[in-house]
Fold:
Amino acid sequence: MNFKIIVYLFLLTSLNSFTNELGINGNSTGNNACPGFFQGSGAPQVLNPKLQQSYHLLCFKSFAVGYSAISRTPLWSAEHLTRDSLNMARGLKRVNAFHEEYRLPERDRAFLSDYAHSGFDRGHMSPSADQPSEEAQQESFSLANMVPQNPNNNRHLWEGIESATRTWAKSNGELFIITGPLFIGSQVQQLKSRVMVPTHLFKLIYDPRQNRASAYLVLNEATDEYKVVSLAELQNLSGIDLMPNLPKDQKNILINLPKPTPHHERSGSGWD
Amino acid sequence: MNPTKKDFDPFQNESQVLSWDDFQIENRSDRVSMSGSIDFTKDKEGLTKALQIQKVLNSVVTTLQGQELPEKVSLEGQTWVKNPFN
Structure:
């Protein structure tokens, strides 16, 4: 270990004792971490001190994740969708593999075996269908981008939300997206006493044309119901300032989000 | 595309995923999950896809037929804990 690394580790541990930042190059820090995925270049800021413990920032090819080793799930997964990136994603079809996130210390990782025999889907936060390259798509199958998700929810309502978001991003030109779980209530479920099961899921969408954002909010259950909430309300629920560079007054304003378009309502529509 | 470059080995791992457009097949140790939608068009591509998926389904059937099976697979219960983020 050379002197520079020791100084770096010292600074990290002294200034930011609970947070690890694991970039592709292992050296992304502070505000420059994982550039390109965040509204106004601002990475989400965790406000709830209990969420800050054992928190890791992970950069991927086309998305970034804030990961909690307490829940062994992402707390958020951020992407910048553009018409071009989605057109590249179209038609990608191949073999992928769910995998553990080996950049995380073993004690902090979710294991494939944690999800086995659970009855839960491994629900992508940044979806594989958004990814513009094979490498990015493979990365999206990291368990650091997954939460235990109700299978009916994952395959119907949530898939419809993801699909509607892509359609909007294509027509709009670009959108910034942050997807994540919420853990609300005094008690939460765990898989294998290790991976926490979210009570809710959110998908926050920022439209640069309106300079505003709002989020889909759904229960992690078999349901067709969803709510649209403001960024300010989502911040209260999540304990995370998801778009720190968006002016405060903009965070209170709701915008219209497109109606989710599940498979059965899409077939024969000619979409895609 | 060649979704069977490493053959789908049903119930043997929690990792394999095959996808065709909006349709995917996931391998789990207690199930094989298919989700999404797919068109088998009346053309060469439709036949290719149909054969690929038939191959996966055949391996599911063969594997299940070759084993002593319970009436219904059992799931592990989840534990409830105090919410550490509250």
In short: Chain A has a mean pLDDT of 88. Residues 19-30+42-266 of chain A form a domain with the Extracellular Endonuclease; Chain A fold (CATH 3.40.570.10).
